[in-house]
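Quick check before the chapter quiz. The format below is the same one you will see on the exam, so make sure you can read both the input and the output lines.
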Amino acid sequence: MFISDVLLDIEDKGYFLGSWFDIEELKNIDVRTESGLLSFKEILDSNSIDCYPKIVNGSVANVEHSIFDIDIVLYKTIANVNKNSKDIKYGLLVAKFSAAIAKVDGLVDFSEIAVIRQNIYSLSMLSETEKYYIFIRAIYYLQLKTTKDVLLGHLEKLSDNSKRQVLSIAMSIVIADMSIVKSERLLVADMYRLCDMPTNSVSRDLKKLAKSSGVQLQARKADRCQEFNFEPDDTLNEFIEELENF
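Here is the expected output.
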């Protein structure tokens, strides 16, 4: 695959997700060096592309090991957004929860990504540029690790209305792949508790939502991930405190 193919992928889906080694122009660049990362950044800039993880001053942000070890997310360069606005911060929290719900069963389905996109683009307080920014962050969050406790801690700080909106979004993603597994039900049940809702109706409510949404649930798939077993990260810590009074 060449950069020209990446551009077509971005034009089609809004992003490219893949390995460093998928792109021919990058195979001869040593990304382990500052000069290599700068060369990579120059190629991206010349094609109006940006990437996650971010490359800043010749180093990669928020990556424990090498950029070789993770998939990179390439996307159209986005005009500056006000990352300090409460709307953006709320959108990022929606993206974070959406990613966590999508991968809690151990497999991210294309239908789940479609629902993530739909939910983010339904946030009417955001501009089109801001929606795209939030969606790309959601795709990147799918590549990161987190813990259930961290996510629920963020949810707990929201207002009652915001909690229920995040819960509604989470449930729509659970049913998107036409099956519901134990790990998904358990996470939704935890969210119910934080919303002061009875947990004995979780399965029934998910099935009811599927029916009203025209989603035909299939036989339950194998539960690849019985519980969250992800390492914590501090992606949201820089702004989550401001959501307490959202």
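If your answer matched, good. The longest helix spans residues 86-103.
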